[in-house]
Amino acid sequence: MSDYAAAPAQPIVQGLITIVTPQTGLPFPAFSGIGVSSIVRTPPGSPFSGNAAGDYLLMLDEGLPGDVALDLIFGRSFLTVRGSFTNVVHFGTSIDQKSISYVASTAPGVFVASPVPGIGSNVVRVVLTASSTGLATDPVGSDGNGCEIVIWRGNAGPESYSTNLTGPLFAPVMI
Amino acid sequence: MPDYAAAPIQPIVEGVVTFPGGPGTQPFFDGKGVSAITRAPGFLFGAYILTLDVGLPGNAGAVPFAPSGPPPLFAPDPDVRTMVTPISTGSPPASFVQSIGVSYIPSALSGVGAPQIEIAITEAVFTLFDPAGGFQIIVWRGLGGGPVA
Question: A158-165 long-range contacts, Cβ below 8 Å, gap at least 24?
Fold first, then answer.
């Protein structure tokens, strides 16, 4: 078999974010998958401006990867919002803006905006927004039916070097 | 090489959907893992149903339901991940896509899972439309894991 793995990327997180609506109490986010040890709504206050909905902090499992969490520049990810049968658009979603950022937790319940040297980004912040309202929005009800997430670690090869590609001939420049 | 594959995912579908006759015409899938593509019944634009190859994976559909209980209609199956990326056209390149919704259509047969995927793509003001350049799609099956809250 030919080896086309010229751009190795290792999956370190994969799962589904859903909103659980208990019979009593407020709806809360849940994660089903691998690589995340807990998920909470982003708390209000510095350095974060938490929202009541659509704004989550996902704590990565310890030791992902190599016990130093995620080096910021190596994070690769995607977010896909599942459509809703009750959306005004057939199987559509109102959530049209999705973002991910890499932050850190230095202690339980403590979050800082930037990766910590030696620790890396052990927390991922996900924000889902509906531009029609300008508000962060949970993917639940008519707005969606959960949000899928995958995070890879890029440059997961034997050599941890970076290559800048410069045009027009895309000649590699080693840095 | 370090093994960081703590979250194994199995690619089961990869391909490109285009509209050789232009938007509003028959969609065409070029890739692997899909045996048929049709428009969702009653919709002329922007809503597609992709039927997975038989036996993807394990001859039980792509996205098996939770092991206990009857499969609810359009249940949010926890084990599937789909990435849809529009292909731009024009200069400067643009896709004009505003939102993308992905849903999994369960089989009527118990234990089969969801052998079909429905994709809804909208442009401005949330109107279903066909992106002129088409779109790429990759579907993975997530392996293992469980609920966390």
Answer: A158/B1, A162/A73
Q: Are strands A9-20 and A28-34 parallel, antiparallel or unpaired?
A: antiparallel
| Under 8 Å between Cβ of B104 and B48 | no
Q: Would you call B5 an interface residue with chain A, using a CB distance cutoff of 8 Å?
A: yes
Q: Backbone phi, then psi, for A6, in 5-degree steps?
A: -80, -15
Fill in the amino acid letter for A19: I
Note the pTM of the prediction, 2 decimals: 0.86
For the stretch B83-111, pLDDT in tens is: 999 999 998 899 999 999 999 887 777 76
pLDDT digits (tens, 9 = 90+) for A61-86: 876 554 446 777 788 999 999 999 89
Alpha-carbon span B80 to B139, nearest angstrom: 7
Whole-angstrom Cα distance, residue A102 to residue A58? 10
Whether the CB-CB separation of A49 and B41 falls below 8 Å is answered with: no
Whether complex ipTM tops 0.90: no
Residue of A nearest to B99 (CA): A96
How many pairs of residues across A and B have Cβ atoms under 8 Å apart? 161
